[in-house]
Specification:
heterodimer; A: 144 residues; alpha+beta; Heat Shock Protein 90; 4 helices; 36% helix; B: 114 residues; alpha/beta; Transcription Regulator spoIIAA
Chain lengths: 144, 114
């Protein structure tokens, strides 16, 4: 049974709003008594996705929308993040070689790599006509 | 985001940086600028305390990678100290924990500089 914990809440693409987005995720998942470690992982993964949107999809334009929806899917939770920016599928980014990453200091790729390690599934909704829809799914540990 | 610096009287190349607060994409560039300023002032041996970092995202991790690289270029060194639970967790998740010199105390970190 699907249930919305947050339904398409709108945030403006300012870096300062990342804290509000993390709070939104935290409060929604606390309602479902999600384990604090899973809450932290989902907050961080959402932060990474939204940071990418602000920095890349919106090229630091600070007046564009980001929509967050959070769904309770029983044994898992899903966070859908929508933007209206340039098309960008983060799943196209390959994981960095960390030794080389430090040695050569490549700037990109670390955020997506981190997202992959924080959640169980990342889906990019290719059917979106404009903008991007990315969904983060986490299978839940036992409740706290 | 808090940023305090302690100098060691008889060791001018060493600076201890105490970070406090949330190290996300909003504050990371500001912190990186301040640390780069220290390096340009000759602080080539940096100790950074993460004891009071409440939140750390990839943009925060990226700073440590960038600083580490900048310091290598000037024959300097970076030591991280007092990783709290939040910081330790994220360093482990991204498997960066073995790629940095991490110590429990300032004294250990300072003594480890060659």
């Amino acid at each position: 049974m699907e249930k919305f914990l947050v339904k398409r809440e709108k945030f403006i693409s300012k870096k300062i709003n990342l804290e509000k987005i993390r709070e939104c995720v935290g409060k929604a998942l606390e309602k479902k008594s999600v384990h604090e470690d899973d809450i932290y992982r989902m907050q961080l993964a959402t932060d990474e996705a939204c940071s990418n949107i602000i920095m890349h999809n919106y090229d630091e334009d600070t007046n564009r929308p980001i929509f967050i929806s959070i769904k309770d899917l029983g044994d898992k939770v899903s966070i859908l993040i929508e933007d209206e920016g340039d098309k960008f599928n983060p799943l196209d980014i390959t994981d960095p070689n960390l030794d080389q990453y430090i040695e050569k200091y490549k700037k990109n790729g670390l955020g997506v790599y981190l997202m992959r390690r924080l959640v169980d599934e990342i889906r990019y909704h290719t059917a979106a006509e404009q903008g991007n829809k990315i969904e983060l799914i986490k299978y839940l540990s036992k409740s706290k | 985001m808090g940023f305090d610096v302690k100098n060691i009287e008889d060791k001018p190349e060493i600076a201890i940086v105490y970070l406090k607060g949330r190290l996300d994409v909003h504050y990371s560039s500001e912190v990186e600028t301040q640390i780069n300023k220290l390096i340009s002032e000759g602080k080539k041996k940096l100790v950074i305390s993460l004891n009071d970092v409440e939140y750390l995202s990839s943009s925060g991790l990226r700073i440590f990678i960038a600083i580490s690289r900048t310091l290598k270029e000037v024959n300097g060194q970076l030591k991280l100290i007092k990783l709290n639970e939040t910081a330790r967790k994220i360093f482990k998740i991204v498997e960066l924990i073995d790629m940095f010199d991490i110590y429990e105390s300032e004294e250990e970190a300072i003594n480890s500089f060659m």
